[in-house]
């Protein structure tokens, strides 16, 4: 646990930047819910969510619900970290996409219920995303770090001094990333347990 906290603390600037991207895109999604929803539909984002929802609906057991939620989140986090090597572009875009979806959902739910968006967030989204959202932010931060490290390594060949610094950057990243990944996986497991329990419970009383 201490290793995970330390690994996140080292990347606090990128964690803050990732949080900013998520919040800024959420505000954009909320302010422009209708056109952005159409854009996300065209990009196939909503279709992926529907597939996951249909998989849970067809077999609404706790085990299946947990597996669908956890595996989808784990896959998304792994892709964000791994594809971050391409200059950190993909994790940044993934954060923006998630933020836009969050904003659109908040906007729709707020209009339909007449509740303030912060109330909707606190009562409907936060219970599901209290661990999932931070895990996504941490995964994106490390994906961006991987891209920065790779970019510096690519440029370091023009200078022996930079090459030495780049080697130290890689060593530092490889020392931290197991703790970060381990912590993210634990958070996703707990998030899936919470969300699965809520979904199964709500299904049983409806």
UniProtKB/TrEMBL annotation:
Q: Does the keyword Membrane apply?
A: yes
Question: One Pfam annotation, family name?
Answer: SpoIIM
Q: Which InterPro entries match?
A: SpoIIM-like
Give UniProt keywords alphabetically. Membrane, Transmembrane, Transmembrane helix
The answer to whether keyword Cytoplasm applies is no
Looking at the UniProt entry, the stretches that span the membrane are: 78-106, 118-144, 177-202
What protein name is recorded for this chain?
Answer: Stage II sporulation protein M
Origin species: Marinithermofilum abyssi
* Classification of source organism: Bacteria, Bacillati, Bacillota, Bacilli, Bacillales
């Amino acid at each position: 646990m201490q290793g995970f906290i330390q690994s996140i603390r080292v990347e606090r600037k990128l964690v803050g930047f990732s949080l900013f991207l998520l919040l800024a895109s959420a505000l954009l999604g909320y302010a422009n819910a209708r056109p952005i929803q159409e854009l996300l539909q065209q990009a196939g984002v909503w279709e992926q969510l529907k597939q996951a929802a249909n998989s849970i609906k067809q077999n609404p057991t706790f085990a299946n619900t947990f597996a669908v939620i956890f595996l989808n989140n784990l896959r998304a986090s792994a892709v964000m970290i791994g594809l971050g090597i391409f200059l950190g572009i993909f994790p940044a875009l993934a954060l923006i996409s998630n933020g836009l979806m969050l904003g659109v959902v908040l906007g729709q739910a707020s209009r339909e219920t007449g509740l303030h968006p912060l109330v909707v967030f606190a009562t409907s989204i936060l219970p599901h995303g209290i661990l999932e959202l931070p895990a996504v932010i941490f995964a994106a931060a490390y994906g961006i770090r991987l891209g920065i490290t790779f970019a510096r390594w690519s440029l370091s060949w023009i200078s022996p001094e930079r090459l030495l610094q780049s080697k130290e950057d890689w060593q530092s990243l490889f020392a931290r990333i197991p703790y970060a990944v381990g912590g993210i996986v634990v958070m996703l497991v707990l998030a899936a347990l919470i969300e699965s329990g809520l979904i199964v419970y709500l299904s049983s009383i409806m």
